[in-house]
Amino acid sequence: MDRLVNTVRPYAWGSPTAIPELLGVAPTGEPQAEMWMGAHPGAPSRTERGPLNEVVAADPVRELGKPAVDKFGPRLPFLLKVLAAGAPLSLQVHPDLDQARAGFAAEEAAGIPVDAPHRTYKDANHKPELICALTPFEGLCGFRDPAAAADLIAELGVDSLKPYVDLLHAHPEEAALREVLTALLTADREEMAHTVAEAAAAAERLGGDHAPFANLAHHFPGDPGVIAAMLLNHVRLQPGEALYLGAGVPHAYFDGTGVEIMANSDNVLRCGLTPKHVDVTELLRVVRFESNDPAVLRPEASPSGEEVYETPIDEFRLSRFVRAEGAAPTDVTAPTPQILLSVAGRPKAGEVTLAPGESVFVPAGEKTELSGVGTVFRATVVA
Fold it and tell me: What is the C-alpha to C-alpha distance for residues 144 and 212, in angstroms, rounded to an integer?
């Protein structure tokens, strides 16, 4: 197996302290948003054999196993992260596989550079993801019932928001949500800035269920995404709980640290809470305008002690082992590639001791046991 040396991405919304605390190092004073573990070409993990993407490319069948290569191609199909939000991320949604392929092909044919700020599709893959809380974790996930969203907005008492309230009450669910989101994102920016400022003041005064949106307005003054966020479910996760985010589901993270795993893609369509490009036309094509109660996932334990977070896709499978003193070693040998990440204690993967925040890549078929005390997340694929 390969001990991984991982890159920490300093995005502006990152916590300056959470990842350093996990790693047991001094903060730099700058945001530390995400620690990437995997073979993503933007920041591949490093091993003694070289960058992990180059290690995989040199012998995909040896590293990934034939079943994974046959199913996903000659690349590691997931990216594992530790995500530490100290401020809200942009309100966003991800395409499904067909949408990603079509969108990427269209932008390639149009000659739009991949790094252009108005480019939407960076690759031809979808990006389902799962976030598992390590600390109390807060965010948004999926649409509220339109009537509940209407009540939340109406309670602000802002006259310029009344047409949106009426729309949410007057139409079938899909039409109501689509019309209101479209209206918010295409409204005159100056007029919307005044509306958001008035709504933020009311939310600050009301507190309670409105408090998260006052906080959003503090970070993104005048952004129509503040009102769009009120259409979504506000979610709080406790450590060990998780959310699965499929294609078309609008979401945003506010605060907290978690282990995140996703299909290996950079395709993000933003809905607001960002200075970056918002492609309204494509966004409205991708978003699934249906309300739902966010399904908070709790791991299901197996006889081996592995606790699995079940999801409906195969590009990744996330589980954890919470190992107590005196527990027998656990065989985690698999015919698929694995990344093992320690988040507590000093467990061992084979002969490698893993302090919190340390990880290893285990090639397909390599015999591996977990031993010692601590909590280990296991990322692999279903092939």
Answer: 15
Q: What single-letter amino acid sits at 84?
A: A
Catalytic-role residue among 270, 317, 320, 378? 270
Burial of residue 79, with CB atoms counted within 10 A of its CB: 0-12 exposed, 13-18 middle, 19 or more buried: buried
Pairing of strands 352-353, 374-380: unpaired
Q: Catalytic site residue 49?
A: no
- pLDDT (0 to 100) of residue 295: 87
**pTM of model > 0.90:** yes
C-alpha separations of 258 from 29, 161, 217, 306 in Å: 20, 35, 24, 18
